[in-house]
Specification:
The complex is a heterodimer of chains A (407) and B (270).
Chain A lengths: L1 E6 L7 H13 L4 E9 L12 E8 L1 H9 L8 H13 L2 H6 L5 H13 L4 E4 L2 H10 L5 E5 L9 H10 L5 E4 L2 H11 L6 E3 L18 E5 L8 H14 L4 E5 L5 H10 L6 E5 L4 H5 L4 E4 L8 H8 L4 E4 L5 H4 L6 E4 L4 H13 L1 H15 L4 H18 L4 H6 L5
Helix pairs in contact in A: 3-5, 6-7, 9-14, 12-15
Chain B lengths: L1 E3 L4 E5 L10 E7 L12 E4 L2 E4 L2 E5 L8 E9 L4 E3 L9 H6 L7 E7 L5 E7 L3 E10 L2 E9 L8 E8 L5 E9 L2 E7 L1 H5 L8 E8 L7 E4 L8 H4 L5 E4 L4 E8 L5 E7 L5
Parallel strand pairs in B: 11-17
Antiparallel strand pairs in B: 1-2, 2-6, 3-4, 3-7, 5-6, 7-8, 7-10, 9-10, 11-12, 12-15, 13-14, 13-16, 14-15, 16-17, 16-20, 18-19, 19-20
The chains are: A alpha/beta (407), B mainly beta (270).
């Protein structure tokens, strides 16, 4: 089958782009796969487009768009297209358009044209605004799927309302966690096989393996308030004081860096905490560590935990919504501590720092858990889901059958 | 698993599956990163290879391995060769610290590239003082660490010297040696008193003078794999009354991962 993933900006960096490219690569083994990008702000994408996957930009953005306009290359929309653009503003809530700047008039017009002309069998949207446009505009011959990377509860109320109204027109949706599926059930009622829980797969690569020799705890993810790294510093202090040879390495960059630097000084951790910045080889870096720590307020999925598992690094995490409790088996492949209990997080880290045999048992268990997120298994589940949605098209698509185009 | 011990013996443990059978050797191939001395593709056969079961050892100490990255290759009698693949992440901190304890001019380290190939990195090195701990204690900086790549010291005392970069200031403080370990307290008041406001940043580079080890040893942090500690670490600062006004002092790592002290006037441009 031919599958098209529609991304807001496939030329940028970020979790969604990375995971969609990764899944596209896996699906491309037995399917024709194309990534469609609403926006294109530069010549080459940040991440390499996987082999065998096509990339189709729909509209220039940013400086590229300005340059095209200045050189008279920007297409002038006709009356009908201007109407489409106005409709798109009603379909995609303002909160979503503010959050993601890719929903420009040229982009939504090009998306509508694409949907009318593509020979794809399945089109998969990858964020609410796109999924809503697919729900409104995808012709009946296309199987339209909404892939959600963010938990329903994290969306703004007006976005949730739009999801409640329009998602039932899709032929199917996917979410990353059971928790998110429960949230959708509350919003939409029981949708049966219309929605599937399909976690992100691990990239198909040879990865190293932690020796459990190095006194290093790793943490990874954007330096943003949601990751609550100052809480992790506080928890790590319990380890740092008793075991001065242990280090905490934080991978990522972001706006919280200055605050975090101040917190490192405040906790007296200058010798033991390193702000490692971004890395292109996260599994290679995680494998140098012996433990992964997660101190987030919310963890939509928890890809880092799975990447840690894949290199034999157990995780210690708050039992925060939504991902960690679905990935970490407390006492098996890691430790879950009561949500936001910093002392408990510190005590759990200390316990594993001091008990190498336990850490090694958990590392072996973590490697076994990682197999559940292997590319091959996840790709087969996607293929099964898409085939079933194409054959069934009941629960959701009946709305679109009766009212094919939303005005 | 693979490692290099303090005598520059490379040790590999090969997996059960996928190992080259029968007789095989090892070689190094220059990675094409534009080294001056050897063309890319230059090869060095490793002659001293011993195998016992899954354990392979290879002596590298006598080989002329120029600075740069080298791929570790397996070779066989028919002249075939291939990259040695590894699942070892390439960092064994305990080995890295043991490696500091001998005099040497060349440092060999193993690493794994993103594609899983085993690499050897060779770099010229000079004796230095590896910093383990830096602590600000009132108006002193407490420093401790170990001597790296020097002979064992004969004395129990040494001297820490702080030199004002680009200027002529020089201060010193006694340092204690315990085996290869060193510790000292650097008083900051003299440093603030010697502050020269015509230079907005007064950097003080730190050296350790150890009797019997030859030259002075620069303080730095190079034993682990964290390169670029200038951005990656953060130290507290303290305020002192200096010559013309108040002076803020804090330790920092330079772009070469050497340890220095930075003094700036309070309220001035950073």
């Amino acid at each position: 089958m031919k599958i098209a993933f529609v991304i807001a900006n496939a030329y940028g960096m970020g979790g969604t782009v990375r995971t969609v490219y990764n899944l596209a690569e896996g699906l491309a083994a037995r399917n024709e796969v194309e990534v469609v990008s609403l926006a294109r702000h530069k010549e080459e994408p940040f991440f390499e487009v996987p082999p065998g996957v096509g990339l189709r930009p729909l509209a220039d953005a940013g400086a590229r768009a300005e340059q095209a306009a200045a050189e008279g290359r920007a297409p002038e929309p006709d009356a009908r297209e201007r109407r489409w653009a106005r409709r798109a503003e009603r379909i995609v809530p303002e909160a979503e358009r503010r959050r993601n700047k890719s929903f420009t008039a040229p982009a939504v017009i090009a998306l509508r044209r694409y949907l009318e002309s593509t020979d794809a069998d399945v089109v998969v949207g990858t964020r609410p605004g796109i999924n809503l446009l697919l729900a409104a505009w995808a012709p009946r011959r296309l199987t339209a799927i909404g892939q959600e990377h963010v938990n329903l509860g994290e969306h703004k109320p007006e976005v949730r309302d739009a999801i409640g109204r329009l998602y039932p027109r899709l032929d199917g949706t996917t979410v990353l966690t059971d928790a998110d599926r429960r949230a959708y059930r509350e919003l939409l009622g029981d949708s049966g096989d219309w929605q599937a829980v399909l976690p992100n797969p691990l990239p198909q690569r040879e990865v190293p393996r932690s020796t459990q020799d190095n006194p290093i705890i790793a943490a990874a993810g954007r330096l943003s308030p949601i990751k609550q790294y100052p809480k992790l510093l506080e928890a790590f202090s319990a380890v740092a004081e008793k075991h001065p040879e242990w280090r905490l390495r934080i991978y990522g960059s972001g706006k919280e860096e200055e605050r975090l630097r101040a917190a490192i000084v405040e906790h007296g951790l200058s010798n033991q905490v390193h702000l490692m910045g971004r890395t292109k080889d996260i599994t290679g870096e995680l494998a140098k560590a012996s433990l992964l720590a997660v101190s987030s307020r919310v963890e939509g999925f928890g890809m880092t935990i799975i990447e840690g598992f894949s290199v034999g690094v157990p995780a210690v995490s708050f039992d925060c919504p939504h991902g960690p409790r679905e990935i970490i088996d407390d006492g098996g492949n890691g430790l879950l501590v009561p949500d936001q209990d910093v002392d408990a997080l510190g005590a759990a880290l200390l316990r594993l720092v001091e008990d190498r045999p336990l850490r090694e048992r958990m590392a072996a268990e973590a490697l076994r858990s990682a197999a559940d997120y292997g590319m091959d298994g996840i790709v087969r589940r996607w293929e099964g889901f898409l085939a079933a949605r194409r054959a069934d098209r009941g629960w959701g698509s009946r709305f679109r059958r009766h009212f094919p185009l939303l005005r | 698993m693979n490692r290099i011990d303090a005598a520059d013996v490379l040790e590999l443990r090969i997996a059960d599956a996928g190992e080259p059978g029968g007789d095989f050797g090892l070689a190094l191939r220059r990675r094409g990163d534009g080294g001056a001395d050897q063309p890319p593709d230059a090869r060095i056969p490793i002659t001293e290879v011993r195998r016992s079961g899954r354990r392979i050892t290879a002596g590298l100490s006598g080989l002329p391995i120029a600075d740069g990255a080298w791929e570790v290759l397996w070779t066989d009698r028919e002249g075939r060769s291939g990259a040695v693949a590894t699942t070892d992440p390439g960092l064994h901190l305990a080995d890295r610290f043991a490696y500091l304890e001998r005099p040497r001019r060349r440092v060999l380290r193993l690493l794994r590239d993103e594609r899983g190939r085993l690499l050897l990195r060779s770099s010229s090195a000079s004796p230095y003082a590896e910093v383990a701990r830096v602590r600000l204690d009132g108006d002193r900086v407490l420093l401790s660490g170990v001597l790296a790549y020097t002979p064992d010291p004969q004395d129990a005392s040494a001297l820490l010297i702080a030199r004002q970069r680009g200027l002529d200031g020089e201060l010193s403080a006694p340092a204690e040696l315990d085996g290869r370990g060193f510790r000292c307290a650097v008083p900051l008041a003299p440093l603030a008193a010697a502050h020269r406001p015509e230079r907005p940043h007064n950097e003080w580079d730190l050296w350790l003078r150890v009797p019997g080890t030859g030259a002075e040893l620069r303080l730095g942090s190079r034993a682990d794999d964290v390169v670029g500690k200038k951005r990656k670490t953060v130290f507290p600062e303290t305020g002192l009354d200096g010559g013309p006004g108040r002076v803020l002092v804090r330790p920092y790592y330079t772009v070469h991962d050497d340890l220095s002290l930075l003094a700036v006037e309070a309220g001035g441009d950073r």
